[in-house]
Write a structure and sequence with these properties.
Largest sheet: 8 strands, antiparallel
Helix content: 10-25%
Number of domains: 1
InterPro entries: Cas7_Csh2/Csh2, CRISPR-assoc_prot_Cas7/Csd2
Protein name: Type I-C CRISPR-associated protein Cas7/Csd2
Pfam families: Cas_Cas7 (PF05107)
Order of helices and strands: EEEEHHHHEEEEEEHHEHEEE
Shape: flat
Organism: Sporosarcina siberiensis
Distance between the termini: 26 Å
Strand content: 25-35%
Radius of gyration: 22 Å
Length: about 290
């Protein structure tokens, strides 16, 4: 498939309904919020979900979650060592002058997420240190309005271990806290850079796969913190420019998405409480997709 020749921008709108979209480990795993109370989902968490969706669709992924891995490798380095094309260039005996460039080329060819997001290849015991810059950039997702976070104490009915002092009593691990966002509409944006796509070989087919992953982002993402149906993709906007650099900056394109609360005095409870529109940019068309 041909490498993408035109710059691409995209924006994704999703809702969170009684779920924890991205817990903050430095704050008791409460949903992330900024200083103004707006909810946040980190770009790292979004990329993890994209990787998972692509892995579900059979794409080769380097950075896999351990609980979702589909091979015998338990680390990134082990996965690199297991690739017969890439592994030889990490051997100290390999003195090929341009092996860093070869690692970038071969790793991008071998794994979709390297081709898309890039990767740093710097491992202990190896004399190769390669940084691959990927063409796909993702912003942090932020809620349109401040979100309400509800916290509840939960109790397990079964001990994980026996209470040594008094077996008839529960151990301390039977108590805990669970947090959720009551409701929020979030948006995140991203871009695909053509110059970096040329380096990693990111193709038009790869871009189409990314778009489909965004449309189905929360499929197979169920957990106790995110029950099935509690997170939903509402809209995906996809702009394809007519040149490598694009007619407009990514910032201007992303700002063209307008999401307004219909009644600022009411607490939003559904996506219908907002009006979503796109500001027209001359010469630049946008395709709109509903989430699945």
């Amino acid at each position: 498939m041909p490498i993408i020749k035109n710059k691409i921008d995209f924006a994704v709108i999703f809702t969170v309904d009684k779920a924890n979209p991205n817990g903050d480990p430095l704050n008791g795993n409460r949903p992330r919020q900024d200083y103004d109370g707006h909810g946040e989902v980190s770009d790292v968490a979004i990329k993890r979900k994209i990787r998972n969706r692509l892995q579900d669709e059979g794409e080769s992924i380097l950075v896999q979650s351990d609980e979702r891995r589909n091979d015998e490798y338990r680390s990134i380095f082990a996965r690199v060592e297991g690739n017969e094309d890439v592994a030889p260039y990490f051997a100290k005996k390999n003195k090929e002058a341009n092996k860093e460039d070869l690692v970038e080329t071969l790793a991008s060819k071998a794994w979709y997420d390297v081709r898309a997001f890039g990767q740093v290849f710097a491992f202990k015991g190896s004399d190769v240190s390669v940084g691959v810059r990927g063409p796909v950039s993702i912003h942090t997702a932020t809620s349109i309005s401040p979100v309400e976070v509800t916290s509840m104490q939960i109790t397990k009915s079964v001990n994980s271990t026996t209470n040594e002092k008094d077996p008839s009593k529960k151990t301390s691990d039977t108590m805990g806290m669970k947090h959720r966002v009551d409701f929020g509409v979030y948006v995140f944006c991203g871009s695909i850079n053509t110059q970096l796509a040329e380096r990693t070989g990111f193709s038009e087919e790869d871009a189409e796969k990314l778009k489909q992953a965004l449309i189905t982002l929360f499929a197979n993402d169920t957990s106790s913190a995110r029950p099935d149906g509690s997170m939903e993709i509402n809209k995906v906007f996809w702009w394809v420019h007519n040149s490598k650099l694009g007619q407009y900056s990514s910032a201007k394109v992303h700002r063209s998405v307008k999401i307004d609360l219909n009644d600022s005095n009411e607490l939003p409870k559904s996506i219908e409480d907002y009006t979503i529109s796109i500001e027209s940019l001359e010469g630049l068309s946008v395709k709109e997709y509903d989430g699945l």
